[in-house]
Write a structure and sequence with these properties.
Elements (H helix, E strand, L loop, with lengths): L17 E2 L2 H10 L2 E6 L6 E6 L1 E3 L2 E7 L3 H7 L3 E14 L7 E15 L2 H15 L3 H4 L5 H5 L1 E7 L2 E7 L17 E4 L21 H4 L8
Antiparallel strand pairs: 1-9, 2-3, 2-6, 4-5, 5-8, 6-7, 6-10, 7-8, 7-9
């Protein structure tokens, strides 16, 4: 299954790095933490970073009812959603050939307002995306909190993943330069949990958090 390749989603530069299959696009979306949502209300462009989760062929967002972003999304206006993960610094022998290893996804779609069961499912998806297990551990949203929260889903109508892997690609003449070249990997790791100063006595760190420092975000 692939997303349609259109003039706005088709890669024009380094096209060999482009992936239009849903598996590749979804893998990037599922590995990221922050999405940047681009919109142009009244012709003025703006890009806003926001938490998210993927649910099938939609990306869900939540926030306060007064949010300018969410008001625009629920109106059904066109948006562009991007997620980028940097996997390493690619150091070449020449500065011109320096690069990064990365995974990115660019998706185009339109938003819709979620209500009732869909709204709650989306909030759970966002919670589980950020920290699996937290939804079942913490207090669920109250009716008052739910009424104060807007949840919107953006359809993934078109999408492209762009991925770079491997080492530097120098000009042939530069391979004789006495300059170190290679890849410096970058990865996201979890640190030791810091308890809240008002944590009740006897409340231990949950298993799903205790396991985090030894694991990397895929």
């Amino acid at each position: 299954m692939t997303y349609p390749k259109t003039p706005r989603s088709k890669l024009k530069r380094l096209a060999e790095r482009g992936h239009y299959d849903k598996e590749s696009v979804h893998a990037v979306l599922d590995a990221g933490r922050i999405a940047h949502v681009g919109l142009a209300p009244d012709g003025e462009p703006v890009v806003i970073p926001v938490l998210y989760a993927r649910m099938g062929d939609e990306i869900v967002f939540h926030g306060a009812k007064a949010s300018r972003l969410l008001k625009y999304l629920q109106s059904g206006g066109p948006v562009c959603v991007t997620v980028t993960i940097v996997d390493g610094l690619v150091l070449a022998r020449s500065l011109f050939e320096h690069s990064m290893n990365y995974r990115s996804a660019v998706a185009f779609g339109r938003g819709r307002l979620l209500e009732e069961a869909e709204k709650l499912a989306a909030l759970q998806a966002i919670s589980d995306h950020l920290l699996p297990g937290r939804w079942d551990d913490a207090r669920r949203p109250s009716e008052k909190e739910l009424k104060a929260t807007t949840v919107v889903a953006v359809s993934i109508d078109e999408a492209t993943a762009k991925i770079r892997t491997g080492g530097p690609e120098d000009n042939e003449a530069d391979y004789n330069l006495p300059v170190w070249a290679g890849v410096v990997p970058l990865r996201e790791v979890y640190g030791e949990p810091v308890p809240d100063k008002r944590l009740m006595s006897g409340v231990e760190v949950p298993v799903y958090i205790r396991q985090l420092p030894a694991s990397d975000k895929p």
